[in-house]
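note to self: dont lose this again. the chain is below, predicted strucutre after it. 332 aa total, dont forget to put it in the shared folder this time
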Amino acid sequence: MQATKEISFEEIKSLMNDKYYLLFVDYNDSLDEHADKLQEALETGTTEPIMGLIDWSFDEILSLDNEKKELKEKIQKKFDITEEEADGLMEKYECEIQDYIYNHDESTPIKDLFRNTSKQVVFYDTGYEMESESWSWSDEEILEEVERIKKIFNVTTSKYDENIRVMITQATYGGQLVVYFYEKIDDLLPEDPEKDFTKVDFKDASIAIIDVYGGSGDHTELIEHSFSLPFKRKNLTIDKTIKYNYTYSVCGLMSDWCSNTIVKLSHEKAEGEIKESRMNAHKAKEAKYNEVFAQGKCSAGDMDINRHRGVYYRNEYPCGNKCPHCGTFWID
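---
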């Protein structure tokens, strides 16, 4: 039996593991139900919104206690001492033991959560907005719009002219010109948030004109064509975070409908400039409406009937639903 006062931390450290995993993520745990936080991560280029979503403190403390319990058993066996004597050593070197375990903790809970999370339908806004009422345009006006869109995507042949023309005439309410793709959100985050991507390359892209305010649009594909755009992080949006989103609300498409799009982000220099998406103003307004509703109030002009209380039907001309609090009216 070795006297406990002679046992050093270096001797105890020899019994400790080279690696520890204090936090465990079950394969059923994911971020699929937290699209809003995934969008925040996408907009900020960091995982901070995800880290703030989950309280790991209990699991971490439990794992630490289990590791310390195993270490105490090793100490008892190695030095042939009593449980009380082992407790004394654990208390004496408590700070050193905990620091060692934390410094050798290789658990990656955020990375594991992202690994378990499904790909998301994302669109990249080119910053260009097509005007509405394309149904009334002349052939010449439609041709001019085709050329504008081709220029944005660096299309120099007539191969896609007809498909782009149809997209324009179908998207009669106009809207944002965007590129759709199906990707893991963590693949769109930079290793260093201070050094974000500067260029985005697309190949075989699904492009669309979408009106997120009224819920309409149309899309086509540029198969066998590649193009590049300057990268602006604020122009990335997870489709399902938009109320009248194109994929689900407007078209009822499967999530992988745009999986043909190949996207690559890089730090290479990009030519030209790109405007910030008008979608950001829309998202800010939606966030304000949600904040007001959470406070038990409503906003005049907010056309989402679910963000109003006590709505009743007015059965006289003009007929429709009316909010008794702010006066917002939905005409039949």
